[in-house]
Specification:
Blueprint: H1 38-80
Length: about 80
Amino acid sequence: MATTKSKATVKTAKAAPKKQSKKTAAIQPSFFTFKFTYQTAYWLILCALVLALGIWVIDLNVKVQKIYDQIDMNNTIQYMQPYKK
C-alpha cells in the first residue's frame, strides 16, 4: 500500500495596491460666479412661461370677478325697484 503525497497548497501573497500620489484639487470657481449656459437659457424660458401663465390666470380671475359684480349689481337693482301690480 503506497501512500501518495498530496501537493501542499501554496498561498500567494496579494500584491500591495499601488500608492497614488496626492494630487492637488482643481481650482473651483467661486459659487457666485455667473456663466451663461444652455441650462441658464432653459431656466429663464421656464421662468418666463410660469410668470406669463400666472399673469394670465390673474387676468382671467379679474374678468370673471367683474362679470360676477355685474350680475350682483343687476340683481340688486332688480330687487330694489318697486313692484308694480
